[in-house]
Amino acid sequence: MKSPQETKVCVIGLGSMGFGMAESLLRDGFAVTGVDVNADAMERFAALGGAVAADPATGAQDAELVIAVVVNADQTEQVLFGPGGAVATMSEGGVVMSCATMAPDLARVFAKRCAAAGVTYLDTPISGGAQRAASGELTIMGSGPAAAFARIRPALDSVAAKVYELGEEAGTGAAFKVVNQLLAGVHIAAACEAITFAKAMDLDLEKVYEVITASAGNSWMFENRVPHVLEGDYSPRSAVDIFTKDLGIVADIGRDLKFPTPIAGTALQMFVMTAAAGMGRDDDASVARMLANIAGLDLPDAAPASEG
Fold first, then answer.
1. In degrees rounded to 5, what are phi and psi of residue 68?
2. Predicted pLDDT of residue 57
3. Domain boundary, last residue among 149, 169, 189
4. How confident is the model at residue 305 (pLDDT cuts 50, 70, 90)?
5. Are 217 and 198 in contact, with CB atoms under 8 Å apart?
6. Structural domain of 155
7. pLDDT, tens only, 3-29
8. Whole-prediction pTM value?
9. Which is the catalytic residue, given 2, 8, 162, 177?
10. Which SUPFAM superfamilies match (predicted)?
């Protein structure tokens, strides 16, 4: 890869994760173009000094690296290969990083389609949340040709603290991410159940958070998501609908393998119930609100905006 200033990168999807990745690359001197259907996200990125484009094909024109940070496999296919897709216009021999959680078989299909178009597909699901995306400290579970990883190493170092190269074939990274999402979804559901259970026993929820985060029952998700409940802030950092999708993938793979996933299945139903209650696009900590509604409990309301 050339120097950052000479390397054109297109980030497709300026949501909570994609925006942070684009911001990290821009901060490290890369020539970054952002693409998103949300005009506000585009304006925010332009205000930082990044370029913006109306569609993936325009944004990826002559780009050496395209990073697709969209919600699912369908959106990945659309932004890469659909009308106005990025693959048709990016630099010959360029690299695609595909970050959405998807079934491994689909990642393999996308790799073949990219190869036929003369570009290299890297299966690079991400983990770490919006804060780590913004600070360039994500974890990447990657698979694909080692030479392609080496080529884009400066960009990987910009967006991630840990990059795992898990094999030469697309699909392996996706499979690792599915395992991660099984655990993440279960841990979010458990954290929401635990803090709502504490409310049912009329405990001081702030003190519950303090004690549990210093105890064996803590998890990364408890520590990260329960503050959303304590603040009554359900603006979506990661939406409920993400986990209805991801745990649905877990269930589908388990069924195909004839492997039981009873705990993940229960967590999936908790997210589905939350979505059915009208909170699918809210923060995934809304599972706590769903449980509180069933039990007739009042969780904290959002803190009022400060004045002055």
1. -95, 110
2. 98
3. 169
4. very low
5. no
6. 4-169
7. 777 799 999 999 989 999 999 999 999
8. 0.93
9. 177
10. 6-phosphogluconate dehydrogenase C-terminal domain-like (SSF48179), NAD(P)-binding Rossmann-fold domains (SSF51735)
